Hints:
By secondary structure, the protein is α+β, with helices and mostly antiparallel strands. It has helices at 12-19, 85-96, and strands spanning 32-38, 44-52, 56-65, 68-77, 79-83, 105-109. It has a four-stranded antiparallel β-sheet with strand order 1-2-3-4, with no helix packed on it. A hairpin with a 3-residue loop joins strand 2 (44-52) and strand 3 (56-65). The longest helix has 12 residues, at 85-96.
Amino acid sequence: MEDGRDRTVVDQKDAITKLKPNLVVGNADQFKLVTKFTSGDGSIMHSTKGLDTGNGILFHYSGEINGIPVTAMEYVPGVKLVEDPLTQKQLENAAEKGYDHKPGMKVVII
């Protein structure tokens, strides 16, 4: 959208504040950030989040390519999410540039 508002959200509270939805049901923060990418010119954005089910992960891929939204979900059994210090450091560096962040996660085989 071209109104200049920042629509980058990091958690449910941030989404409610910035996007002002009419209805919120459930806890969207159950999904944890695994990867995030934005091209320098903003033409490509990609985010992967995972919901750890205890015996696998439900992945949600979302993004935008040249203004066209893309999304997909996939369940992968036999893996789990764990905190990743490298990803966390990258997110902290991004926070220094004004990006908000949540703990970074990585996928491991169980």
